[in-house]
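Question: Hello, beginner here. Any chance you could explain the protein record under this note? Any guidance would be welcome.
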Amino acid sequence: MTIGGSDSAGELAGLTPWTARAAPIARAEYDARLDRARALTEQAGATALLVNAGASLRYFTGVPWGPSERMVALLLPVGGRPVVICPAFEQGTLAADLRIDADLALWQEDEQPADLVARLLAPGAVLAVDPLLPFAWGQKLRDRRLSLVDGTAPIDDCRKIKSPAELALLSQAKAMTLEVHRRAAAILHPGIAASEVVRFIDAAHRALGAAGSSFCIVQFGRATAFPHGLPGEQYLAEGELVLVDTGCLVEGYHSDITRTYAFGAVGGDERAIWAIEQEAQAAAFAAVRPGETCEAIDAAARRILVAHGLGPDYKLPGLPHRTGHGIGLSIHEPAYLVRGDHTVLAPGMCFSNEPMIVVPDRFGVRLEDHFHVTETGAAWFTTPQPSIDRPFG
């Protein structure tokens, strides 16, 4: 599929709901996650783990609720049954979403859920708390004479290693988004508004069976020099770079793919930087192997840039941010491909690979694909962009 030559209606007409759908996470896998979290919580010296609403709650229970001012949380004792803490009026919805066998601890609107947590634990219990638990709630728990410790390790050490079922869900999400990218490139024409492309991308994700785009960034020309874009409308002109960064969700698992390509004839500087970006992305991928550190992958990409006279470090022209981030139920999650992250790579870890190059106030090039660590190296979820003029081969 090429750049331009089609229209939104024609491309949407060619899309149907995705047929090769990955299976949802099975009950046995949720149980295994809970057992792993119990063991890690005990290693952390705690008697229970408290997981706040959000991606981690979904990971352990299947409940896809975001955090709010009302406490919804999983209390996981090291030696007992899981307990889900929830407002009483949400009981029916909770039961419909819950994917584990758990007790429910319900609180009314005029009650303090911290009291409920304290009653469920022995006096002086050591509670490992989700790092995303609001600070004010932590203070209330301390006021109830609970000892709090950091629950980051028990949660993140579970979530960082993806199972085959998770890899399949991630693969589907990324394949769907790559197809949307192909279709979006086909509708481009001089004068098209970035907002029209954004609307098309959302509709195309919906046509494939996702609940629309989970996010979408469309940038033309100078705006590509700003990693997350500029406010206001943009209109495409001949001879400009196009940068599109978007994703969707499949059973809560994220895609997040960026393509940068030429609309018409772009200059030699753009082409040279595009080629360096491609080389840096490939170098980061080639450096991946079990036992290597996250920061070493970032360093591999930056060595390419420095060899071409860019950088060093975060100096521009060059790479203004980390090379990549973990991805799963959160679009950005530990670990991170950045200097200072000494996390050791292991099979099942998943990352973006996006060593963006910015030429200040002129243009930027970001190629973003994802890989997962294997027993011997890495495997791409999506095939990287082959050229600046033919982004999909």
About this structure: The mean pLDDT is 97. Residues 27-159 form a domain with the Creatine Amidinohydrolase; Chain A, domain 1 fold (CATH 3.40.350.10). The chain has two domains: 27-159, 161-380.
